[in-house]
Every structure is written in structure tokens, then in C-alpha cells.
Amino acid sequence: MGAPDLTELAASFQGRLLTDAADTAPFLVDWRGRYSGLALAVAQPDTTEDVAAVVRWCAAQRVPIVPQGGNTGLSGGGTPDASGTALLLSLARLNRVRAVDPVNNSLTVEAGCVLANVQQAARDAGRLFPLSLGAQGSCTIGGNLATNAGGTQVLRYGNSRELCLGLEVVTASGEIWNGLRALRKDNTGYDLRDLYIGSEGTLGVITAATLKLFPLPAAQMTAFAAVSSPDDALRLLALAQQQLGAALTAFELISDFCIELVERHFPELRRPLAGHSPYYVLLESSDSDGEAQATERFEGLLGEALAGEDAPGRPTAAPCITDAVLASSLAQARSLWAIREHITMAQMAEGKNIKHDISVPISSIPAFLEQVDAELERRFPGVRVVNFGHLGDGNLHYNVSPPDWGTAGHPPTDLQALQPDINRVVHDAVIEFNGSISAEHGLGQLRRDEAARYKSPVEMALMRSVKQALDPLGIMNPGKVLG
Ligand code: FAD
Ligand code: MLT
Ligand code: ZN
């Protein structure tokens, strides 16, 4: 059978259809340049009905569909395989704000809305949409929901899943399910919304979402603190939770090596504290009280952390931080966040790396790091761990870069060849500590086989049943999430 006739598809929907290699190229390689593929064409629908027409055509022709939003995913979920048989479905033009209801604290947007624009639409209505991540200038809300993205505010507001009230989905057979319910309570059977969230385009296409909004904080405090160890970082977390309660919105761990990489590749971003400490914490509070009260509480917290008082139930009286800077202006707070948000780019600029996205119970993090740091050094001397992440959620991007060839006299390392062995050390330990091998980035193609390795046969069989029920033809993003 030859390739399907695209003129029929072009006639059946009103969006754009790209077929020239120069036009389709940017859609066919992932953000990291780790995966590349080919496609029959790139379809760019403008409306939900357009999406449905494309999906119906694909179902009739048995053409696989790879949905794509902003193409910032880090697990290769939005890149087709090399066969060139799939249709890449870009949702980027489906980007209207449909409705905002400040009284109900809800906002309905189309899947291709860029996250930063969703945040702005909420602000324009005097509300907060709290999902925040480094890629927010280009990732889409559809992609965020499809990957159940986390980011830096999960501690207070939850993952994308918790921020979504309702969905509109084009099913794998091309029907439109309108589940755009703006309800906080709805117990009417199986939760289809939660099935589609985090399914990475393997069950259907998200075309719109109704999102939860929150009051805008009256004051935000941001500080960058030096800690001697992950254990001290956890002591600071306990103290901050005790003192700030729900106002603590972000708690990020950053190793000194991450700061070195940012300094090396983005010299305009300056190290916030003099000297070196093994780790740093970037913490933020968002208060409904005014500026003066928020400042007093935050300064009180940092003072206690420096002086050595501890949270109740944790009797040690030693200081948990060795130094700190409290941002005194919005610009200073932004520059502290810029350092955190440039780690991924700095690590890319440094060269190839192995990405991890692990979570373990927060209390286990110091023991996990001690064990895995030592085991990696024993098995792969000189490898450089780029450890940072959302410590408040127990989620670390425990990434690995090859040895520094220039200084240590190591022979060039074929990192790709080492990946299975390095993954085994890290992921076996994650499972030993009752954790997850993907906290927020999803499985895509990068972690698909790793997940199958660690999940029980019962869990895998249930996942396959869901896939079979919702996508019986197997055309939705084949080869992602499930093999
Ligand atoms: P894409 O990359 O286009 O797609 C991702 C997956 O979703 C693919 O499987 C795709 O098929 C599917 N998909 C996309 N749109 C739809 C749709 N409408 N319907 C069905 N399926 C769809 N993630 C975090 O969780 N936390 C972070 O802090 C974070 N920081 C990041 C920082 C940087 C610099 C970068 C580059 C990425 C970061 N990410 C982070 C990764 C994150 O998953 C993505 O940025 C984002 O959620 C993906 O959105 P996207 O629109 O780019 O999706
Ligand atoms: C982050 O928290 O910055 C991201 O999830 C990106 C990454 O893992 O590189
Ligand atoms: Zn992250």
C-alpha cells in the first residue's frame, strides 16, 4: 500500500498542511536535539472541529498521529519515529482564550495557548494561574496537561493535574468529548479528565481546558540560601513550613556545580553569594498579607535558620544555613530565578548529558544522594552530577555529565553508551527508596522501557487495557509511554 493521498486530507479541514522538508523540519526534532524523526506532513488545525477532521482521516487511513504543542518536552514524546508514516498534529494555532470567570476562579483556554499567555490572561482578570516552569515562554497548556507538568510551584498549588477542572478532547476515533466542566466537585463515574492528563498524547488530543485560578499574592519574598548538605536543606524546609505554612510556594535545591555551569555559560548571571557552598536553596513565599508582614516573617525565618533554632520535633540547634540573600526588589528576585532557570541550558551548553527526573520520599533524599553519588563515582570515576530540582516535592533532576576531559585527563566518554548502566544505578536506587523514575517529565520514548522494567505486570496490563479501550486502532502517538 502506498502513502495515503494528502489532497483528501487538505480538503477535509481548514487548517494548514505543511509538507515541504524545510517547513516540517523544526517539528521533527526535540528540544534537546536527542530525538529526530520524519512525518507524512505537519497539520496545523485552527479549531477543535479541524482537529476532529484530521483524526477521523487518520483513523480511516490507519495513519499514526503525533500531537505536539510547544515541542519543549524532555522525554521525546512529541517526536515521530523515523518511518515517515505518522502525521504530526501541531496544536499551536489552536490558541484562543475562550472564557474567564473570576467569580468561579476559572479560565477556559485552547490547548495551543502558550503557558506565559495563560498566566497573563489570569493576571488580566486579577487572578493567578500558578503553573510556572522554565519553558513557559514556549510550552503550551495542552502539552503541560498531556505531560502533567510540575514546575516550581507544586509545593503550594499542585501539578498541572490539580490545576485542571475540565477538558475538551478529540478522541482517537475523531469524536469531540466536551468535558469542560468548571466544577470543583463532580463524582459522576470514571474520571476521564484524569485519564487524559499525563497520557502524553497516547489516548486522544486535548483541544481545550478549564483551569483553576487563585487570588494574586499581595507580596512575594524570594531568597537564596547556602546550605552545607541536603540534610540541612531539609531542616530548612521543615523550619520554613513551620514558619510560613501554606505561604511557602517554592523550595528548589541547587548544587554548587550547577551554579558553576551557569556562570561558565551565562557570565551575565552572577553568583548571588560570595564563596562556595556544596548546595543552595532558592525559596519563595507568596502571602495574602501585605509587604511589611511578609518581609517580617521571611526575615524572621532566615534569622532563625542562620542562628540555629529548629522546627519543633527536630531537636538539633545547629544553624541550617550558612549564608543567605533576600531579594530586595522584583528585579533581584527575577535574577535569582534566572540562575535557577538557566541550569538546563547551561548543562546543554556544556555538552551531552543524561537526564533524570526522579522523586523519592523527601525524608529519604539525603540517604539516596549519599548512596547514588558514591556508587556513580565508584563505577564511573569522574562523571559530574548536575543535581538540582524541586526539593520541596521530593523531585530532583539528578542529571549526569561526562568527566571533564580537559582537566582530569580522562579519555573522551561515550556517554550514550554508558546511559543504560548509569540509569541502572540511579533508577534501581530510586525503586529501592520507593520513588518514581519520572516525577514530572513523563515517559515519552526516553523512559518508556525503564518504566516497563519497574512496573508490576498488573500495572502494565491495566495500562494496556486503558490504551486498548480508548485507542483500539493504536494510532495515538504509538511507541510513547507503552511499547
Ligand atoms: P510538547 O513538547 O509539544 O509535547 C509533550 C508531550 O505532550 C508529547 O507526548 C506530545 O505528544 C503531547 N502533547 C502535546 N500537546 C498535546 C495535546 N494538545 N494533546 C495531547 N497530547 C499533547 N517540565 C516540568 O514538568 N517541570 C519543569 O520545571 C520543566 N522545566 C522545563 C524547562 C525547560 C527549559 C524545558 C525545555 C522543559 C521543561 N519542562 C518541565 C518539560 C515540560 O514537560 C514541557 O516544557 C511542557 O510541559 C511540554 O509542553 P509542550 O507544549 O512543549 O509539549
Ligand atoms: C527544571 O526543573 O528546570 C526542569 O524540569 C528542566 C530539566 O530537568 O532540565
Ligand atoms: Zn523540573
Fold blueprint:
Blueprint (H helix, E strand, L loop, with lengths): L5 H7 L3 E3 L2 H4 L16 E4 L3 H14 L3 E4 L18 E4 L6 E5 L4 E5 L4 H10 L2 E2 L12 H7 L6 H4 L6 E8 L4 E4 L12 H5 L7 E9 L1 E2 L3 E9 L2 H15 L3 E8 H10 L13 E9 L3 H17 L15 E4 L3 H12 L1 H8 L7 E2 L5 H15 L4 E7 L4 E7 L3 H4 L6 H18 L15 H7 L2 H14 L13
Parallel strand pairs: 2-4, 3-4
Antiparallel strand pairs: 1-2, 5-6, 6-10, 7-11, 8-9, 8-10, 12-14, 12-15, 13-14, 13-17, 16-18, 17-18
The structure holds flavin-adenine dinucleotide (FAD), D-malate and zinc ion.
What does this protein look like?
α8 runs antiparallel to α10 (291-307). The mean pLDDT is 95. The chain folds into 4 domains: 6-90, Uridine Diphospho-n-acetylenolpyruvylglucosamine Reductase, domain 2, CATH 3.30.43; 97-215, Uridine Diphospho-n-acetylenolpyruvylglucosamine Reductase, domain 3; 219-344, Alpha-Beta Plaits (2-Layer Sandwich), CATH 3.30.70; 351-432, Alpha-Beta Plaits, CATH 3.30.70.2740. It has 17 helices and 18 strands. The two termini are 25 Å apart. A 7-stranded antiparallel beta sheet has the order 15-12-14-13-17-18-16, sandwiched between helices. The chain has a 5-stranded antiparallel beta sheet with strand order 5-6-10-8-9, sandwiched between helices. Strands 1-2-4-3 form a 4-stranded mixed beta sheet. With 483 residues, it is α+β, with helices and mostly antiparallel strands. The longest helix has 18 residues, at 415-432. The chain binds flavin-adenine dinucleotide (FAD), D-malate (MLT) and zinc ion.
Quick gist of this model?
This protein has 483 residues and is α+β, with helices and mostly antiparallel strands. The protein contains 17 helices and 18 strands.
